[in-house]
Specification:
9 strands, 192 residues, alpha/beta, 5 helices
Length: 192
Amino acid sequence: MNDEAIVLPRAAAIILAGGKSGRMGCDKALLPFRGQPALQWLVGRLRPHFSEVLIGANDPDKYAFLEVPVIADKVPGQGPLMGIASALEASPREVNFVIACDSLDVHIPFIQEMLCRAAEWDCVVPVHANGFLEPLYAVYRQNMLDALWETLRAGERRVRAVYSRCRTFYVPLPDEMSLENANTPDDFATLA
């Protein structure tokens, strides 16, 4: 399937770039990847397929050169669950694909499959054969915002804690997809 021909006009892509990059030692979103900052490469990879691309981050000035909306967390320092809730609330679309800025394996046909399943579910989350979830490579609908805010008010910060509060579909990750993240300099070098 030629993924360049796929367009997902009724969905937005949200890239979470608000992490501290502790294991990397610097802002991994701005590290060079295939000739440009990683976040710029990811925006360019997603932009042809989505009606909007947004970035969830707490420093809008740092990413202004990308010319896409940057959504700050409503309460900084609360982790990716707060990033998802804040960006989802600001999104102009009901259906949103959320991806971490260090998830540089973008599989458009698989993302399209998840978006299609979201017609009947509040969120669609990939699961590996070993049961490991990929909450930062998943589809979230705005109708789960109440569940997100309730989870955060309860003091929970793990993304997977919201899944029991809404209709969640776990889609098996195909064997050929690894969804490797660039968490360390070695990881980044391997993916580049």
